[in-house]
Design brief:
The complex is a heterodimer of chains A (186) and B (1047).
Chain A: H1 28-31, H2 34-38, H3 64-71, E1 94-97, E2 100-105, H4 115-129, E3 135-140, H5 148-155, H6 158-166, H7 168-178
Parallel strand pairs in A: 2-3
Antiparallel strand pairs in A: 1-2
Helix pairs in contact in A: 4-5, 4-7
Chain B: H1 3-12, H2 20-27, H3 33-44, H4 49-65, H5 73-86, H6 93-104, H7 111-124, H8 132-148, H9 150-155, H10 158-168, H11 174-190, H12 197-205, H13 224-235, H14 242-253, H15 258-275, H16 277-297, H17 301-318, H18 329-340, H19 347-362, H20 364-383, H21 391-409, H22 418-421, H23 428-440, H24 445-457, H25 464-480, H26 486-500, H27 502-515, H28 527-543, H29 547-567, H30 581-605, H31 615-635, H32 649-665, H33 668-684, H34 710-713, H35 716-725, H36 737-751, H37 755-771, H38 773-792, H39 799-817, H40 822-834, H41 842-850, H42 852-856, H43 870-888, H44 892-904, H45 910-915, H46 917-927, H47 933-948, H48 954-975, H49 985-995, H50 998-1001, H51 1004-1021, H52 1027-1042
Classes of the chains: A alpha+beta (186), B mainly alpha (1047).
Chain lengths: 186, 1047
């Protein structure tokens, strides 16, 4: 091992149980199973004339669960384990209201020097994955880190984030963490 | 034959391969080998290097070419001696080695000669002076000597081994090393190497670890793994290596990383059993330290796996039999692991569990020991945990150990069993207790399920009562647990149990599941109950595939459907949510039927013979529901009566599918009988044979008669279901197939009420024509001709009739195009012709162009018969015509051809597109701007399959790279929702997934200009109203961000 790890034996958690946030389907999808709706043969709309089917369905807003889905499979910079398994991000700590997204992250240990890097990874992911109309706040969950304030300041300062991303090495580390982001819990 | 002349010509022209007729002459005995040697005489002894070399080469090549039987003992001896004398001649060495290799394989080549040759080489050849190819020849010769004359070389004793190790020392070429490693291994295994082991150590271990990386496009194809495996076999060839090898391994622990560390661990795993317990024991704990580090701290799972196999090998070497008391190292390891497990929620605890499991697998005595040490502590921790959250990882550890036990005891390879080792016996009750508690407790269910599944599979461990106990616990989770992640695990576990104990599942699980299915659908707003019945159904779908459980499923589901159909005529209840109670019941019935269909399809796929037995139980019952519903309302319809449930077309359609699946499985005799009954019902109105309870059905005539109600006409779907399931050689209940077909065509065009009915009767027509091609052969042309002139060409008829006519026409063409019937192409010609009339008859022509999508469906999932290459033939016929038409047309007229092209695209396999890419790519690219989203989707899907099909062809690569900028531009238009351009979620998702392929296959320099534009445009897609589109957009954008960044 080339470098002493901050936390060489972190706690691993089982995947979060998502019952509390289970979305309730709206419209047709609430009553009919996916199979029934996807299979054209059964033609839900019996009066349609073949072409031009699949009209626009209801608007599905971006919710906390979707944001969590974007973040859960990002890899921890120190271990080949997802942030979900380390409970660094939790579904309950993500809040979406209007055009604002607020994410609290929980470092595995109070002196974790990786918190900023993790926060930066989260920010980059959301910067790339959320529409520009959203304003994203990323904060350390209160009382979980020694230098909470400093980290918060760094993560939410546009210029500092920009400067960090111009550092080639740092960007590569972040890209490495983001490689697994598309797994989305699977 | 003038041998000297032939030889002279050959040598003087430097043509050093013997001519074929010379070889044949030797083989036939007409020319002696000696004659060639004589003829070569002056060359072989020439003082000029080049001449001598040519002579020798010619001789060796002749030896290689002639039949070995023609080289007699004397010749062998003479030639061998001659070649030996040439070994000290630098230039002559390669041909001499070639000749000797041929000779050494002969039966006339004796042991003495072998020793002579070997000595000749080691005394005269300075290996370092020669190039790789020559050295390779030396090794090939060694290999050949060793294969045939091993004992002779063995008897040379020390001198052989000394000289051998000197000869091969310092070899570096991978091609030579591959050969050397295999020779080394033979010597190490068979020769007395004990006293020379240091020399051997030097010539083998010096290569470890191998860091070779093959150059790009390596023509020899030797990979690093080939070398590693060959070397590893060498290193694990002799127990005498132990003294030097183990210290080397220990030293390497500290310095190696990555793939080399993995190599080290695997090498240790291979070597330790050979080196033996005694040698290993001395350094055992040091080896353990090195292995442990990689298990506990490595972030690379492949290294961890290698380290675990090294550990298994270590333990197996130290404690090979049950009699070897697990003292010493095993005790230390277990102690360390249990200490780590005191903090069971940490990452290292998972590693410690893996270590314990590996020890169990490795040795019987150590395995029993770790069980006796670990389980009591784990039970204690589980029952009084220091922190409540520790219980889940503790149970996980217990279950992982049980899985390890199961993997050993239920394996047919291992000799170990629970009966014999009794390792779990002392903990029987405690295991059951913790698992039962786990099944009951939130957060512990998943590990408990894993443990239960393992225990059930350990032979002779759990008795019936234990299994029943656990099944009850699992059932409870299945019914009551809301967590979507747990249920699949329970189902998997129950399915596994059902293969070992089917009766327990049948008597415990099934009744409970059925009991929990409601009798009528929950209201629209009651999502929780709906989720619950869906989850029960999905469980049943998996469990009831087994023959023993299938009949229960049929009975229960048909009973539920009966109940639903009768309850629906009650007074309408309070309306709740968006949908009324009828709609809810329809959705519920659909789910029930869909489950039944899924199980039937699965059983058919797995070739269960019992499924067809049940056709008489299933189809008539379902028919009864539908037929009684469609006929009852016509008789006395009161105002407040609710429409009967099974009048719903979605239910009729799925019942039709079930019928098709089951009918298809029947034998031709049974099919014939069944079809006769159906025919009587639909044509004559006699329903007696196809429904279950006659009394429920009013006495009505054929649903196809004139004056039938629309509801009755809907029954056409059931008719179509049966016809689609018929085979080609089933006897028909009528004499004229053509007449039958004509009546169906007439019904479709003139009687059917709407597109739903038309669709089903088109399916019927298509299937019938496809299966009865031979019977219809003579009349098809007339039938098609009359449809064309009477229905399609006649512009005085209304548009709908003409459209239906064309649909029938195209479906018949499709049916015979699948069989590559020539008529289909001439018939299609007419359709292509009318595409040119777009300015005269715009609506109809547009319809005809998109009508090509009928042909594009191909065989699909249907039971239609399709001949090989039907798609290619149709495509090759249509494409040139469309291209020609496109060229002649102008303005909007061209659009029609493009529409037809895009509609037909799904038919074409990617390989066909690639073969003719230059012609196909331009219209595909133009199709990307068609207004209809479906046609754009077709074009993009084809593009995806072109891009994804790996192709070495330079032309394909060039064509793609040339056009990629246009592709990106058009795709970006399809991902965005904009006023004026019709779109669909499907086209947006397809376009996004196509865009995300580019970063993988297009060289960055081509697209780097577009990166920022693509990323900006994709940003808009992130705000798509649909979640699935957004998801695709996010990952596509992430890929484009990475594009061009070397990570």
């Amino acid at each position: 091992m080339s470098r002493q790890l901050d936390n060489d034996n972190p706690t691993i958690f089982a995947p979060a149980i998502s019952t509390s946030t289970k979305r309730v389907q709206k419209g047709k999808a609430s009553l009919w199973s996916e199979e029934a709706l996807s299979d054209d043969d059964y033609g839900y709309e019996s009066n349609q004339s073949g072409l031009g089917s699949g009209g626009e369905q209801d608007m599905e807003d971006i919710d906390a669960e979707e944001v969590y889905d974007l973040l859960r499979s990002i890899t921890d910079p120190e271990h080949p384990v997802s942030l979900e398994a380390l409970r660094v991000v939790n579904p309950d700590d993500i809040h979406v209201a209007g055009n604002r997204v607020l994410v609290y992250l929980t470092p595995t240990i109070p002196h974790c020097s990786m918190s900023t890097l993790i926060g930066l990874s989260l920010r980059v992911r959301l910067l790339r994955a959320l529409p520009t109309r959203y304003k994203v706040d990323i904060r350390i969950k209160s009382g979980t880190h020694q230098s909470e304030h400093a980290v918060n300041k760094q993560l939410n300062d546009k210029e500092r984030v920009q400067a960090a991303l111009e550092n080639k090495h740092l960007l590569n580390v972040v890209e490495g963490c983001l490689m697994t982001a598309d797994k989305r819990g699977n | 034959m003038d041998v000297p002349r032939v030889v002279r010509t050959q040598i003087s022209t430097s043509e050093l391969t013997p001519p074929q007729d010379l070889v044949e002459a030797v083989n036939d005995g007409k020319v002696g080998l000696l004659e060639i040697v004589k003829a070569l005489g002056e060359y072989l002894t020439s003082t000029e290097d080049e001449v001598r070399l040519n002579g020798l080469t010619f001789l060796s090549n002749s030896l290689k070419a002639v039949n070995p039987a023609k080289i007699n003992r004397q010749a062998t001896q003479t030639l061998t001696n001659f070649y030996i004398s040439k070994l000290d001649d630098f230039d002559s060495l390669p041909p001499a080695l070639g000749g000797l290799t041929v000779l050494s394989r002969l039966s006339t080549f004796d042991d003495d000669a072998a020793v002579e040759v070997y000595k000749g080489i080691v005394e005269n050849v300075n290996m370092k002076a020669y190039v790789q190819a020559t050295r390779h020849m030396v090794y090939v010769l060694f290999d050949s000597l060793l294969a045939a004359h091993r004992n002779a070389l063995k008897s040379m004793g020390t001198s052989f081994i000394n000289s051998y190790t000197k000869m091969v020392d310092g070899e570096k070429d991978p091609r030579n090393l591959m050969l050397l490693f295999s020779i080394d291994r033979v010597i190490l295994l068979e020769f007395e190497v004990k006293d020379h082991i240091e020399d051997f150590f030097d010539i083998t271990f010096c290569y470890f670890p191998i860091t070779f990386r093959p150059p790009p496009n390596d023509p020899y194809g030797i990979t690093a793994d080939d070398l590693k495996l060959a070397l590893r076999k060498c290193m694990a060839s002799s127990p005498y290596f132990a003294k030097m090898a183990i210290p080397l391994f220990l030293e390497k622990f500290g310095t190696l990383t990555g793939p080399s560390m993995r190599d080290l661990q695997l090498t240790i795993a291979a070597c330790l059993p050979v080196y033996g317990a005694e040698a290993v024991r001395e350094r055992g704990s040091e080896l353990w330290e090195g292995i442990k580090t990689e298990i506990l701290y490595s972030s690379d799972t492949s290294i961890e796996a290698a380290a675990l196999s090294a550990l298994e090998s270590l333990i197996h070497t130290l404690y090979p039999t049950e009699q070897d008391a697990p003292t010493g190292l095993a005790q230390d390891i277990v102690k360390q692991c249990l200490e780590i497990l005191n903090e069971p929620d940490k990452t290292q605890a998972i590693a410690a569990t893996k270590i314990l499991a590996a020890i169990f697998r490795a040795s019987s005595s150590a395995g029993k020991f770790i069980i006796s040490q670990a389980l009591p502590q784990l039970f204690r921790q589980f029952n009084s945990p220091s922190v409540p959250s520790h219980r889940s990882p503790i149970l996980s550890t217990i279950s992982s150990l049980l899985v390890a036990v199961q993997s050993v005891y239920s394996s047919s390879v291992s000799q170990r069993s629970q009966d014999q080792e009794q390792s779990l016996e002392p903990y029987r009750d405690s295991i059951l207790d913790v698992l039962r508690e786990g099944l009951r407790t939130e957060g512990l269910k998943s590990p408990a399920i894993k443990g239960c599944t393992a225990c059930v599979q350990i032979p002779n461990f759990w008795v019936k009562e234990d299994v029943e106990d656990v099944v009850r616990g699992l059932d409870d989770i299945l019914i009551n647990d809301q967590d979507p992640e747990i249920r699949p695990e329970v189902i998997k576990s129950l399915t596994t149990i059902s293969t070992h104990h089917p009766t327990i599942i049948e008597s415990l699980t099934l009744p409970l599941l059925f009991h929990n299915l409601p009798d009528s659908a929950p209201s629209a707003s009651d999502h929780i109950s709906r989720e619950k019945y869906r989850s029960i159904l999905s469980s049943l779908k998996k469990l009831c595939i087994q023959p023993a459980l299938f009949q229960t499923l049929i009975i229960r589901i048909t009973t539920k459907l009966d109940l639903l159909s009768s309850s629906s005529s009650k007074v309408q209840e309070e309306e709740m949510g968006e949908f009324d109670i009828r709609e809810c019941n329809i959705a519920y019935s659909w789910d029930l039927l869909n489950s039944l269909q899924n199980v039937i399809d699965k059983k058919i796929k797995e070739k269960h013979s019992d499924s067809i037995r049940y056709i008489d139980q299933i189809v008539p019952r379902l028919n009864t529901l539908v037929v009684s519903a469609s006929t009852s309302s016509t008789q006395n319809l009161k105002l407040d009566d609710v429409q009967p449930l099974f009048k719903d077309r979605r239910l009729i359609a799925i019942i039709s599918k079930i019928t098709e699946s089951l009918v298809w499985e029947l034998s031709t005799e049974k099919q014939s009988k069944w079809f006769n009954s159906v025919y009587q019902a639909f044509e004559k109105g006699d329903w007696a044979e196809v429904i279950h309870e006659k009394t429920n059905v009013g006495s009505v005539g054929s649903p196809l008669r004139t004056g039938a109600s629309s509801a009755e006409q809907d029954l056409i779907a059931l008719y179509a279901g049966t016809v689609q399931g018929l085979k080609g050689d089933t006897a028909l209940p009528f004499s004229s197939a053509a007449e039958f077909l004509s009546s169906k065509i007439h019904w479709t065009i003139n009687v059917a009420k709407d597109s739903w009915q038309v669709k089903h009767s088109l399916d019927l027509i298509c299937a019938f024509v496809n299966k009865r091609e031979s019977e219809l052969q003579d009349s098809l042309e007339t039938i098609l001709g009359s449809i064309w002139s009477a229905e399609i060409q006649d512009t005085s008829k209304d548009l709908e009739t003409r459209r239906r006519g064309l649909s029938v026409y195209l479906h018949i063409v499709k049916a015979i195009a699948l069989l590559r019937n020539p008529l289909s192409y001439t018939a299609l010609d007419k359709v292509i012709d009318i595409l040119s009339l777009s300015n005269l008859d715009p609506n109809f022509v547009q319809y005809a162009a998109s009508g090509f999508s009928v042909l594009a469906q191909g065989k699909g999932k249907s039971h239609l018969t399709a001949k090989l290459l039907h798609a290619q033939k149709l495509w090759n016929f249509v494409l040139p015509k469309l291209t020609a038409g496109d060229k002649e047309a102008s303005g909007p007229g061209r659009l029609v051809y493009l529409t037809a092209f895009a509609s037909l695209l799904p038919l074409v396999p990617a390989s066909l597109c690639l073969a003719d890419l230059d012609n196909i790519l331009p219209p595909i690219l133009r199709s990307l701007s068609l207004p209809d989203p479906q046609q754009r989707t077709n074009a993009i899907t084809t593009l995806i399959s072109i891009l994804e099909t790996a192709s070495d062809s330079k032309e394909v690569d060039r064509a793609i790279h040339q056009n990629v900028e246009i592709m990106v531009e058009f795709l970006l238009k399809s991902i965005i929702r904009k006023e004026g351009l019709p779109t669909s979620p499907k086209v947006r998702i397809t376009a996004l997934s196509c865009l995300s392929i580019f970063p993988d296959i297009i060289r960055f320099e081509i697209l780097h200009k577009h990166k920022s534009i693509v990323i900006r445009e994709l940003g808009k897609s992130l705000d798509d109203p649909l979640r699935n589109v957004r998801k695709e957009a996010v990952e596509c954008r992430a890929k484009w961000y990475r594009y061009g960044n070397a990570v």
